[in-house]
Write a structure and sequence with these properties.
The structure holds two protein chains of two kinds. By secondary structure, chain A is an all-alpha fold. Helices cover about 55% and strands about 5% of the residues of chain A. Chain A has a two-stranded antiparallel sheet. The longest helix of chain A is centred in the first third of the chain and has 19 residues. The chains are: A mainly alpha, B mainly alpha.
């Protein structure tokens, strides 16, 4: 009797753990690899280029750092509402860049606001390469 | 004997989940997707704060959400809109080609905040009338009781 209960408990725990993992979870490095394959003619990603892109304005009032700060290992805040934004650098926030759907959602929105266009895979790759160097 | 207890525990767990996820008349309705998406940049404003037509207009215009791109994929937009419409304000409003989408323009909001000094809206601790949590200390949890007010002096 107690044996079958323990087996049932083990099975339930395994299922619960599997169900808890998001279906789209991957490492930031895998996300980066995805950018490399996304478009033809991608050059080697550059953290220096990514950092400059991140900290510059692009024709509007805002840069990425307007909300994500000059040091993306820090928490940021929304430029208008002051809403707390958890750190963007994976070293400070391991959940970042692990959910492809979430990554694409925020790039779509924020590039539209900051650059008034979509970001290229090259730009996304440069930025993520930079963010991966931030400790 | 323990099988009965296990069954009772399971029933209790399911009941608790149903209570927490759907809400009763005593608690504000909530939806996981709405909470996750609409609380990214501000508090998730409760559905009862706007009528259904206002929510419809707002959710269809997320590409330009008060000056920012807040767009969602079609499935998420549909789910959130359905939740908002279901739990929207049922107050009568004048039908308009462009329903108002600012909560701060609603008659009930203006009435509730009649006694708030104008200077407070511009106080850097408040910044904007859309920043409920500046004074409504439990706004994050959808609670706006006067008992939980703390107005900056």
């Amino acid at each position: 009797m107690s044996d079958s209960f323990h087996t049932l408990a083990k099975v339930a725990l395994t299922i619960a753990t599997l169900v808890a993992l998001p279906a789209t979870a991957q490492t930031p490095e895998q996300t980066l690899a995805g950018f490399k394959q996304a478009e033809p003619g991608i050059q080697a990603f550059s953290a220096a280029r990514g950092e400059q892109f991140f900290k510059s304005t692009h024709g509007g009032d805002w840069s990425c750092s307007s909300c994500h700060t000059q040091n993306p290992a820090n928490a940021g805040k929304h430029a208008k509402t002051d809403r707390l934004i958890k750190p963007l650098a994976p070293s400070a926030n391991p959940a970042r860049f692990t959910d492809v759907a979430k990554v694409e959602k925020w790039f779509k929105r924020n590039c539209n606001d900051v650059l008034n266009r979509t970001c290229t895979a090259q730009e996304k790759g440069d930025v993520l390469t930079y963010l991966l160097t931030v400790k | 004997m323990y099988k009965t207890r296990l069954l009772a525990a399971l029933i209790a767990l399911i009941s608790a989940h149903a209570y927490a996820s759907g809400g009763t008349s005593a608690t504000a309705p909530t939806n996981a997707k709405w909470k996750a998406e609409c609380a990214s940049c501000h508090i998730a404003y409760p559905a009862r704060m706007l009528p259904a037509d206002s929510w419809k207009r707002l959710m269809r215009g997320l590409n330009n959400h008060f000056g920012e791109d807040a767009s969602l994929n079609p499935a998420d937009t549909a789910e959130i809109l359905a939740f908002l419409e279901k739990n929207a304000s049922r107050r009568k409003v004048e039908p308009a080609p462009q329903p108002a989408i600012r909560i701060t323009e609603m008659q009930w909001f203006i009435h509730e905040h009649e006694e708030v000094a104008n200077r407070l809206w511009k106080d850097p601790r408040v910044k904007s009338a859309s920043n409920c949590a500046a004074c409504h200390t439990n706004a994050e949890n959808g609670r706006f009781s006067e008992r939980e007010l703390r107005v900056p002096k």
